[in-house]
TrEMBL record:
This is Uncharacterized protein DUF4124. InterPro entries: DUF4124 (IPR025392). It holds the Pfam family DUF4124. Keywords: Signal. Residues 71-89 have a biased composition (Basic and acidic residues). Residues 71-104 are annotated as: Disordered.
Length: 196
């Protein structure tokens, strides 16, 4: 593709140089073909390949050839830049593999040790494990998750007083509760209207 474009560019340049000349294709009796800017000698087959061109056509061809040359130079420059970038990327040193470092191996060993301790309380063991996981992540370049905090203990459930069977003898009420003769209190909504 690039070679064909270069050939077209060269032909465009030649046409611009030849200005308004005609091009004839002349073939003699032996089959030899020659191109000339004048009509072929008698006895040779002749064919007009390019007719005379006006100065405006020649100028348009020259502009097209210049645009093609500039486009080819831009493509070649982009290709050279891409190749240089690819070579630079290949030559760039790889970052060291921290997973094989002495610090990483020591951090993993310490994490194994801390995880094997059975005499620590759960909260202290989780704190030490998380500290060691963070140290191992820093030394090895890993992204191991920390141990989560345990869920909070459930809130104690309040047991509602069972409603006594039979009529309730209410002695007095305040804004929120009513009280019976035994001192048990009841939310006012459960009691209903307070007798006067």
């Amino acid at each position: 593709m690039k070679h064909r474009f270069a050939v077209l560019l060269a032909l465009g340049s030649c046409l611009a140089v030849t200005a308004s000349a005609q091009v004839w294709r002349c073939t003699d009796a032996a089959g030899k073909t020659v191109y000339a800017d004048a009509p072929c000698p008698s006895g040779q087959s002749a064919r007009l390949v390019e007719s005379a061109r006006t100065p405006a056509q020649v100028e348009a061809d020259a502009r097209a050839a210049e645009a093609a040359r500039a486009r080819l130079e831009r493509e070649q420059a982009a290709s050279r830049a891409a190749e240089a970038e690819r070579r630079a990327a290949e030559a760039a040193p790889m970052p060291p593999d921290r997973s094989q470092s002495t610090e990483c191996r020591a951090a993993k060993k310490e994490l194994d040790f801390v995880s094997s301790i059975r005499t620590l309380p759960d909260e202290e063991k989780r704190a030490r494990m998380n500290a060691q996981i963070a140290a191992m992540n820093a030394a090895c370049g890993t992204q191991m998750d920390l141990l989560p905090d345990p869920p909070p203990p459930p809130l104690p459930r309040r047991h509602a007083q069972p409603m006594p069977v039979g009529p309730i003898a209410i002695t007095h009420c305040d804004a929120l509760y009513c009280y019976d003769v035994r001192g048990r209190r009841y939310p006012r909504a459960e009691v209903g209207p307070v007798p006067r």
